[in-house]
Amino acid sequence: MYYNLIILMLFLIGSSCNNESKGPAVSIEESYSMEDFKKVPKIDTHAHITSDGKTFIEEARANNFRLMDMIVDVPQFPSIPRQLEICLKHREEDPDVFAYTTAFTLENWDQPDWGDKIIENLQKDFDNGALGVKVWKNIGMTYKDQKGNQIMLDDPKFDPIFQFIKDQHKVLLSHAGEPKNCWLPLDEMTVNNDRNYFTEYPEFHMYLHPELPSYEDQIQARDNMLSKNTALTFIGVHLASLEWSVDEIARFLDRFPNASVDLTERIPHLQYQSLENRNRVREFFIKYQDRISYGTDFEQEENHDPAALIEKMNARWLRDWKYFNTEEIMTVPELDTPFQGLGLPKTAADKIYRINAEKIFKDAWESPKITG
Ligand SMILES: [Zn+2]
């Protein structure tokens, strides 16, 4: 035992000498610059490719991004079987960039064997390479049982499914409810993108639907579900719908140690909080740097315009990079007031942009093929 201790001490002395011989150690507070964007390896953990085209994948590869694609039970998307077909093809052709998670529908919910059938399908999807399962806001907002009751995420009928996902060492991703803005009138919303989205999709603008479950009901159902499934690896996408307060997100992460959040489509809500108290937002990122992953929600649909998609992706990627990595004063289309970037240290940026996703989705992506 003492021998081991001596070896350890010698090792520590040795490694500190090594650092000295390489010159001054790099400060851990150093941040990436805009020039670093392309060369730093990154993961976009929230992509929706619903067509065979390669624009998204090629542009991701060119910018050192790997992708986690999410199949979702969204009416505007192709059917889940069709999305699976598309994912299998991309995975086969581009396993260095493309990995995916699957989903299920609540059709036939009232049939006694609904859950068994879902588990059967999930088993097939996992065998084919799906790494997780995404549940969408239509649970809690759209689907009703035959008695007309809203189906919520903590319904016991989901229990065996979530248990199965856990037993298979897969990940549950949940888009529960909506941003809190959804329950406010348009002119009281904090960010322009919510205002635009809920103008376009009034069926999801809950301020107009007081008969449906409240914001608090949605959050409560999700948290009840998590309390029953504490060992499940869980990602609350869209900042777990707690985007309006970094303190609330922190409380959520403290309460559920196997949960993490993705930043997808909710970065402007953080920028809004930066306006009031940039330090608080920055401290949140420093403290929870192991529990936050970057994502965009970019979609590549059947009839997309490749040039427009590439332009949109690059503009947003660079805006986000600027916010997290630099201390520049900047503006974004989602806010009317300029704010300052967070200038996160490289170590935190690497976790948010890559390492956390690599830990959650182990061995998800293959090494690039060496050509030439
Ligand atoms: Zn999405």
Secondary-structure element series = HEHEHEHEHHEHHEHEHEEHEEH
Shape: globular
Strand order of the largest sheet: 8-7-6-5-4-3-2-1-9
Quaternary form: single chain
> N-to-C terminal Cα separation, in Å?
52 Å
Mean pLDDT: 93
Largest pleated sheet: 9 strands, parallel
The CATH architecture of the domain at 115-290 and 302-360 can be named as Alpha-Beta Barrel
Structural class: alpha/beta
In the CATH hierarchy, the third-tier topology of the domain at 115-290 and 302-360 is known as: TIM Barrel
* Computed Rg: 22 Å
- What percent of the residues sit in helical stretches (DSSP H or I)? 40-55%
Question: How many strand units?
Answer: 11
Give the names of the bound compounds.
zinc ion
Total helical segments:
12
| CATH domain class name of the domain at 115-290 and 302-360 | Alpha Beta
Strand content: 5-15%
Could you list the spans in which at least 5 consecutive residues all have pLDDT below 50?
5-22
Task: Give an overview in words.
This protein has 12 helices and 11 strands. It has 372 residues and is α/β, with parallel strands linked by helices. It has a domain of 235 residues: TIM Barrel (Alpha-Beta Barrel). Strands 8-7-6-5-4-3-2-1-9 form a 9-stranded parallel beta sheet, sandwiched between helices. A two-stranded antiparallel ribbon has the order 10-11. Strand 2, helix 3 and strand 3 form a beta-alpha-beta unit. Helix 4 runs parallel beside helix 6. About 5% of the residues have low confidence. It binds zinc ion.
